[in-house]
Design brief:
The chain is mainly alpha-helical. The chain folds into two domains: about 70 residues; about 300 residues, no CATH class. It has 14 helices and no strands. α7 runs antiparallel to α9. It is a multi-pass membrane protein.
Length: about 375
């Protein structure tokens, strides 16, 4: 067998395994989330289907597959069908570029599907494409609530992608590469990036909640305002595909935060003294870090209320974007004038920024709580007598 064909088949096999792993994680994430929310809200959660409710995801999958698939009369049939496929396709593709271990550690193969020098840029581009699935689904449904949800999602994505991209510029200037392997390797030599870019991490974390439409930024499907937004006219397997995309995006965001700020697939080095080589075990450490961030997503959902839409937009444009820009300028200035010094002073400055944000939270709250509606007397109405 030619080498190129063997490489292609192995890559396809790894892609299939990644897809199966993500979909299985999605299925049991729904169960874990419901059980955790039940525990936090002092109720049992799903516990009827199978022992301890473990077969609930299988029951949900069977229901979604065999439920009647309704199609709205006024819908654009082709786009209406393609929209959830675009959303889940982009979500699954983005995860394949993240390294889960050292080269050759997965039965002699590399624990990633593809490896690009522009890794973080490619991932941001792929996740940005996911919004087309939501917007097209809302537009193609042919009714007002879905298109309102689609428009909300598009505006929200654009607003927070700017802050998300800028929050990573400081990291990229320090490391000097956009490759995930380069970023993990740099952290192995110099320490986790969270020590030097804590402000950038906080801004990236907030933007990740907005990008994945999770509470408190789940405005595109706000039930009390627009029924279910872009999901209103979807049912059965198409509705399930949108749900899969949301959870896979959440898993990808967790993996990206683990890779960029917490050392990626590498474990704590001091554990090598107890078990030699344990910090280089593939998959284990990345899965542990992903699980932590997934728990954080659920915890926030159980704790915080949903923002109003005007608050969400002001929060992104008046706080996240300026702070991300300030973090970029601060990092650039430090790297330009630091001389031969280390990065620890930059870490102190970044941590001071996070603490200042917490201490001054009451003062900066007016940035997104204060209404920008002008008084009635100042409004100049169009037209004349």
């Amino acid at each position: 067998m030619p080498d190129w064909l063997a490489t292609l088949l192995i890559s396809l096999l790894k892609a299939v395994l990644v897809v199966l792993g993500l979909l299985t994680t999605f299925a049991y994430m729904t169960l874990i989330e419901r059980r955790l929310l039940g525990r936090m809200q002092l109720r049992p959660g799903p516990n009827r289907v199978g022992p301890m409710g473990l077969l609930q995801p299988a029951a949900d999958a069977i229901k979604s597959i065999f439920k009647e698939d309704l199609t709205v009369t006024l819908a654009d049939k082709l786009v209406y069908t393609l929209a959830p496929i675009v959303a889940i396709g982009m979500a699954l593709t983005a995860f394949g570029g993240l390294p889960a271990g050292p080269a050759g550690s997965l039965f002699g193969e590399n624990p990633w599907v593809y490896n690009l020098d522009t890794g973080i840029l490619a991932l941001l581009a792929l996740t940005s494409m996911g919004v087309y699935g939501i917007f097209l689904g809302g537009w193609a449904s042919g009714s007002k609530y879905p298109i309102l949800g689609g428009l909300r999602s598009s505006a929200q994505m654009i607003s927070y992608e700017l802050g998300m991209g800028l929050s990573l510029l400081g990291l990229l200037m320090i490391v000097g590469t956009t490759s995930f392997h380069g970023i993990v390797g740099w952290q192995a030599q110099n320490g986790p990036m969270i020590l030097f870019q804590s402000l950038g991490f906080v801004l990236f974390l907030i933007s990740s909640f907005a990008e994945t439409n999770r509470t408190p930024f789940d405005l595109p499907e706000a039930e009390q305002e627009i029924v279910a937004g872009y999901l209103t006219e979807y049912s059965a397997i198409k509705w399930a595909l949108f749900q899969m995309a949301e959870y896979v995006n959440m898993i990808t965001a967790s993996a990206v935060m683990a890779t960029l700020f917490f050392g990626g697939w590498k474990g704590p080095q001091f554990l090598n003294g107890l078990i030699p080589g344990i910090s280089d075990w593939p998959l284990i450490w990345l899965i542990v870090k992903i699980a932590f961030f997934l728990f954080l997503f659920i915890w926030v959902r159980a704790t915080l209320p949903r923002l109003r839409y005007d608050q969400l937009m002001r929060f992104g444009w008046k706080l996240v974007l300026p702070l991300a820009l300030a973090n970029t300028v601060m990092t650039a200035a430090f790297l330009a004038f630091r001389g031969s010094g280390g990065l620890w002073f930059l870490g102190v400055l970044s941590l001071a920024g996070v603490l200042a944000l917490l201490v001054l939270s009451d003062r900066v709250r007016v940035l997104w709580n204060q209404s920008s509606i002008r008084p009635e007397g100042d409004i100049v109405r169009a037209g004349g007598d």
